[in-house]
Known about the structure:
The protein has nine helices and 13 strands. By secondary structure, the chain is an alpha/beta fold. It folds into two domains: 8-115 and 168-244, Glutaconate Coenzyme A-transferase, CATH 3.40.1080; 118-167, no CATH class. The strands form three sheets. Strands 1, 2, 3, 4, 10, 11, 12 and 13 form an eight-stranded mixed sheet that branches. A hairpin with a 2-residue loop joins strand 8 and strand 9. The longest helix is centred in the middle third of the chain and has 13 residues, at 100-112. It is globular. The mean pLDDT is 94.
Amino acid sequence: MDKVVGSAAEAVIGIVNGSTLAVGGFGLCGIPSVLIEELYRSGVSDLDAVSNNCGVDEWGLGVLLKARRIRRMTSSYVGENKEFERQFLCGELEVELVPQGTLAEKLRAGGAGIPAFYTATGVGTQVAAGGVPWMHAPDGSTIRSSPAKETREMDWHGKTLTFVLEHAITTDFALVRAWKGDRHGNLVFRQSARNFNPLAAMAGRVTIAEVEHLVEPGEIDADAVHLPGIYVQRVLPMTPEQAADKHIEKRTVQPKNEAENGGPR
């Protein structure tokens, strides 16, 4: 039952070229930065990653992207990562853009054993009809695009509506970051870091969690557990320095004179 590993290198054993990864976090909040850095050091490449976004140029998944270690991304948001945009438009990276709520449910469904589900999101658009570019040629032309998806009319609250079929996502591995975890893999996520982390963890066949505070079994109240240990196979305790090393994707501050005078007039 003790799932704690002694090092980041031990934590990522088994992740090889071509592996599929579900990665938690939103922007730069709650991203498993220690595990990502270890993958960079390991030299693994040709990765197929599923994450809300791809970090920024120098942090998070952006580190692997900049080093050309990622072959394909399934995301809902390009964000502030200009290299992500460049690689996609230049035909160096395959990208499947998915509506954010749909991406969350695809990951959750994968962990819950639900192979597919119907949703109204995307009906009447290219999300359902197909044709969303996935891969460009160097000249900017589209060489691979999304296929059409099955749709179905159903009664919903007294109305006949159209829904689109979306398939669940499962991956070889999942990388997540938790504020607190015990040796059995029960995890607690703090505030907004409880974003895609629980869902990504559910989707991985082998889930690896880096935790800021490791506690003993029983120290986390059962009602406080956000993700039960059944979904987690490896736990990596972080050092205080690693836990404190957090970045902000886009900092917006108030000019000093406005702050001193109570804000803009």
